[in-house]
Design goal:
The radius of gyration is 21 Å and the shape is elongated. 52% of the residues lie in helices and 12% in strands. The protein has helices at 2-25, 28-41, 51-57, 60-75, 80-97, 146-155, 186-196, 201-210, 220-233; strands spanning 108-110, 116-118, 131-133, 137-142, 167-172, 180-183, 237-239.
Length: 240
């Protein structure tokens, strides 16, 4: 019965991590046995003895991600890069789900610099605009290409030979429903890094020129403006 609750809850909470564990271990039941032993050793008991409540509504997702980080990856995995990327991705989504809910539509929130962030798509972007991360957005790094991991899971291809290719993921609390995650292109990752530095659009464009960032001959200034507009439409950045 506990195996049933474990599988049902895992499929709802982190289906791709569950698939990765099954493919990496060869049998998810072996992972379940390790989880039960680890849970017992670490004093993780069911609230009021209610197993179904723990797996359905309790702290199971956070506890299990901790198990994967502290036990499974160091002691059992054959594909540490892939499993680390999978567990960190799920941890970021779980953290995003636990952020306070943000209202939909235009909003004004306090930026780290003390400016007000204007989440208003009608506000014109000027050289003096200062784009910053949209409220509730968090950018994390993964040690391997998450999209490639998903492709391999779908095709049941090996995970152990995944190359080390760090990528960045933007996690955003949606107006309704669970948190959303998006793997960033190298250009988007560069832009978000510069936005976190509190630069103006003109200063970001100057950085693009300095770093000789261009695509198919598109001037750095136009590329910068287009990238900022796309990130803004994706609700990853707003103007301060």
């Amino acid at each position: 019965k506990e195996l049933r609750d474990f599988l049902l809850s895992s499929q709802r909470a982190f289906r791709r991590l569950l698939l990765g564990l099954h493919q990496d271990s060869g049998n998810i039941i072996d992972v379940f046995a390790q989880w039960r032993e680890w849970r017992a050793k670490n004093g993780i008991d069911f609230t009021d003895g209610n197993r179904t409540s723990y797996y359905g509504q309790g702290g199971f997702p956070a506890d299990f991600l901790k198990f994967v980080r502290l036990h499974y990856i160091p002691a059992a995995t054959k594909a540490p890069l892939a499993m680390t990327a999978l567990v960190e991705y799920e941890a970021a989504l779980l953290s995003g789900d636990q952020r306070p809910h943000e209202p939909a539509g235009a909003s004004r929130d306090q930026a780290p610099s003390g400016d007000r962030i204007i989440a208003n798509d009608d506000e014109a972007i000027t050289p003096d605009s200062r784009p910053q991360l949209f409220p509730g957005v968090n950018v994390i790094g993964l040690p391997a290409d998450y999209q490639e991991i998903v492709r391999r899971l779908k095709q049941r291809s090996p995970l152990y030979d995944l190359p080390s290719q760090p990528v960045k993921i933007a996690v955003r609390k949606a107006p309704s429903g669970p948190a959303e995650a998006r793997q960033l292109s190298p250009l988007s990752a560069e832009l978000l890094d510069l936005c976190e530095d509190g630069l103006t659009v003109a200063e970001i464009a100057a950085e693009f020129m300095l770093r000789q960032i261009e695509i198919s001959g598109v001037p750095a200034e136009k590329l910068c403006m287009a990238g900022i507009q796309i990130l803004r439409q994706q609700r990853l950045i707003a103007l301060a």
